[in-house]
From TrEMBL:
Residues 115-154 are annotated as: Disordered. Keywords: DNA recombination. InterPro entries: DNA_brk_join_enz (IPR011010), Integrase-like_cat_sf (IPR013762), Integrase_catalytic (IPR002104). Residues 122-140 have a biased composition (Low complexity). This is Tyr recombinase domain-containing protein. The keyword Transmembrane helix does not apply. Residues 1-114 form the Tyr recombinase domain. It holds the Pfam family Phage_integrase. The lineage of its organism: Bacteria, Bacillati, Actinomycetota, Actinomycetes, Micrococcales.
Amino acid sequence: MDALDEYLAGLRGDLLARGPGDDDARRALLLSWRGRRLDAQGVRAVVRRGVAAMPGDYRREATPHALRHTSATLLVASGWDVKVVAELLGHRSIATTGVYLDRIDGELDAAIRAHPLEPGPRSTSTSTGVGAASSTSRSTEPQEVTDRPVTPPG
């Protein structure tokens, strides 16, 4: 069972019971300790506490927007269809998502290899996973967008 399953099976129900029981809280995925929808200020506080709890080598300033951007970049780099990523982000235009395709050669690979959630060795040589491709093998040209459904690479 992963963390989200555990949260949904237990803690979320306990938090919801603490709240006013409104429809907004029932529809929300993340709830505050008061049982209300987690607002932007609450998300920033969670991120701030999470960063403070990280080992010093990985600790750096982070914001919810930076985490959103990093997640989207990792999805695109992992081969997800840009249209799917655009929909996840709530972008009306796929052109808005294009920022995740415009990367300096090698910058994305280096960032992914250094990311604490990236599986495999952290060295810059012969790593496995998403960052294994050489900087010259990743095109900076926009990827072809199709209407076919795409499943996450696995």
